[in-house]
Amino acid sequence: MDLNKLKMVLKDEPAYRLRQAEELIFKQLIEDWSEAQSLPVALRQKLKNDFPLSTESAVKFLESKDTVKAVISFSDGVKVETVLMRHKDGRNTICVSSQAGCPMGCVFCATGKGGFKRNLSASEIVWQILFFARRLKITGERIDNVVFMGMGEPFLNYDAVMEAVRLINSKDGFNIGARHISISTVGVVEGIEKLADEPIQVNLAISLHAPNDALRSRIVPANKKYPINNILWAVYGYVKKTNRRVMFEYIMIDGVNDSDDNARELAALIKKRLSLKLAFVNLITYNPTGDFKPSNRDRVKKFREIIDQENVETTERYRFGREIKAACGQLANRDVNDKTKIQRP
Ligand code: SAH
Ligand code: SF4
User: Does the pTM exceed 0.85?
Assistant: First the structure.
């Protein structure tokens, strides 16, 4: 689905028709133009021919109790993964991909190890959300949060990501509040700087994962281009301009970045640069992808205690989707085979 094409198809119609069509697609979540009773029959037919709403993507599903993973393939055969996370309180979060693969090559991440194919268009990002929104409509549910934590580095595809964000946030689109949209970056400084000037203030998360450059460069190769100090300066500027809280993500990898010293260094780093009110650390359970192991519970507890003692706030991310390899960093299109059931959204 290419939303620019929708504009083209409706260019000779009065302006309100575009808004009406968007409302039908994103709010009423119609799957076929024949459902669009509010439009004249001739226009429905034209849209059916020139802007079909049926899936252009072959989709495979894997489901577990609290997670649904969809593998969506686009017209050129490129595949991405999108994950729906169902929270106990009834909310739904969708984790979208911004690129097919990722060029950043973080050593702990299945997507990074799989290499890079291409950037996604704004429409391809939006499609991932639409896909699950239609599915949830059947049970009377909706999408509450969108996180850019699927495949890819969002700030290497900045314009398409922001175009998608505008549509996700727009009253004529999904109407999801900016506070319910989060972008996670490995630390692309230009992206952080640009985001600070956006009129829509979404949540920013920084994948830090190590408290010093020597260690971070070993596990996050992009650290050579974007060292910790440069990232923290950009975050400092972002916080100053926006007054928004920033989340520092830290995956706990056994024997790699989880020592007491690492915890002390992490707390000191954040305190040195940022107001404690506007930064917090999210300790993430590592989802094994081959080479590393997650830190054990006691280690995570101790690590957290040390940071807490320094008055830096911490949270721990609930692990979603491990049993179907649908959790962060496990998206690599590897575990879907022909036996996977295919369902309609
Ligand atoms: N490229 C962006 C966004 C996608 S990754 C980024 O790196 O921030 C989303 C989050 O999942 C990041 O914090 C990333 O470091 C983390 N992640 C990657 N592999 C993981 C794994 N195997 N287990 C847990 N988290 C992982
Ligand atoms: Fe890319 Fe993020 Fe994975 Fe690193 S962690 S390889 S930046 S998707």
Answer: yes
Fold designation for 56-317: TIM Barrel (3.20.20)
How far apart are the CA of 207 and the centre of ligand 1, in A? 7
What is the CA 275 to chain-centroid distance, rounded? 26
Tokens 């996670």 appear where?
A: 184
Residue with tokens 């928004």, as numbered in its chain: 244
Quick check: do 1-54 and 56-317 share a fold? Answer: no
CA 329 to the chain's CA centroid:
11
| CATH code assigned to 1-54 | 1.10.150
Q: Which amino acid is at 226?
A: Y
Q: Which residues are catalytic?
A: 81, 328
Per residue in 193-209, pLDDT tens? Answer: 999 999 999 999 999 99
Ligand 1: residues whose CB is within 6 Å? 102, 108-109, 149, 153, 184-186, 207, 249, 251, 284, 286-287, 289, 328-330
Residue nearest to atom 5 of ligand 1 (CA): 149
Q: Look at residue 133 and tell me whether its pLDDT is greater than 70.
A: yes
